[in-house]
Design brief:
302 residues; 11 helices; globular; Arc Repressor Mutant, subunit A; alpha+beta; two-stranded antiparallel ribbon
């Protein structure tokens, strides 16, 4: 399928947990609710969106000191790695599968996880023999003084949405009023402060005219970006890209950008080279996988 800029806006909103709030999001963009709903249904029908799952913000729910960690790894069998790590780490929340070009030059696996003992979790990951290579980083640290206390009715609401992420509001009513349901959904699921989020599982390989990629830039050439000889048009385009702060394998910085077709890819490669950096390859985003089995295992109250 092919997508456009509005489609991408909607998908990014879904990735941020806004599925229950698309009407509000649509009004901000001055798009009719019906158009947004039709586009989402098309994503689902074409399998760009494979489904939705709920995740819980463990730091907010349980309270205490937590770290959101991230691993970047190279693995010949990434599916097996995910299965192995799911047995060792209690709170994996999302897995990203990527295609490095050329093969092996960058990470084909990216995993996000919560932990209360980052050094131990990091050691477990590094000792996982299924990896050919892996790096582990801290993304964010939390210090939540008290846990979130949910009423039995709120727990039941979360449980129903967890078991059926596409459930409609009328199906949630039971003994509660529509106003109560809407208020609680807004309170409990609204990003970024809700304790739960509904996230899509995406297959970007379905898109014919769009790709999200990370260019791999040779570390030693990054200083060339400060040159006064770089054309102003290149500087403007460089500002639209997201640059990683740490080089992978101490060799490559990653430059994150959206690509709209072959011409856009060629233009951005030419721009990077014209800015004096060496592009050694790129990483193509393929799919993401939401992991939430641990919710029923480790949070029996839900």
């Amino acid at each position: 399928m092919q997508i456009d800029q509005i489609d991408l806006k909607i998908i990014r909103a879904l990735e941020n947990g806004n599925r229950p709030f698309l009407t509000t999001v649509a009004s901000q963009w001055q798009i009719k609710k019906e158009e947004v709903e039709a586009r989402v249904k098309k994503f689902e029908a074409e399998r760009l969106i494979k489904g939705y799952k709920m995740i819980i913000s463990i730091p907010s729910f349980l309270g205490g000191d937590w770290t959101l960690g991230c691993l970047l790894g190279i693995a010949s069998n990434p599916t097996k790695v995910v299965s192995v790590l799911a047995q060792k780490l209690n709170f994996i929340i999302e897995v990203f599968h990527n295609l490095p070009v050329p093969e092996g030059i960058g990470p084909n696996l990216n995993i996000l996880f919560y932990t209360q003992d980052f050094p131990t979790s990091s050691q477990i990951i590094k000792e996982t023999e299924e990896f050919d290579y892996v790096e582990v980083y801290k993304l964010q640290e939390y210090a939540i003084p008290v846990p979130t206390i949910l009423s039995s009715a709120e727990q039941e609401l979360i449980r129903k949405i967890y078991n059926n992420p596409t459930v409609q509001v009328p199906e949630l009513l039971d003994n509660q009023t529509l106003e109560w349901i809407e208020e609680k959904i807004n309170q409990l699921l609204s990003p970024p402060n809700g304790i739960a989020r509904l996230l899509p599982e995406l297959d970007w390989q379905v898109c014919e005219n769009f790709a999200h990629i990370h260019f791999l830039i040779e570390k030693g050439t990054l200083s060339n970006l400060s040159s006064n000889e770089i054309p102003e048009s290149y500087r403007s385009l460089l500002k639209t890209m997201v640059w990683t702060s740490q080089p992978f394998q101490n060799r490559f910085y990653q430059v994150e950008t959206d690509i709209w077709g072959v011409n856009d890819f060629s233009t951005k490669v030419k721009m990077l080279k014209g800015a004096g950096v060496k592009v050694k390859g790129f990483i193509l985003a393929e799919t993401n996988q939401i992991i939430n089995d641990w919710i029923s295992k480790h949070l029996p109250s839900l």
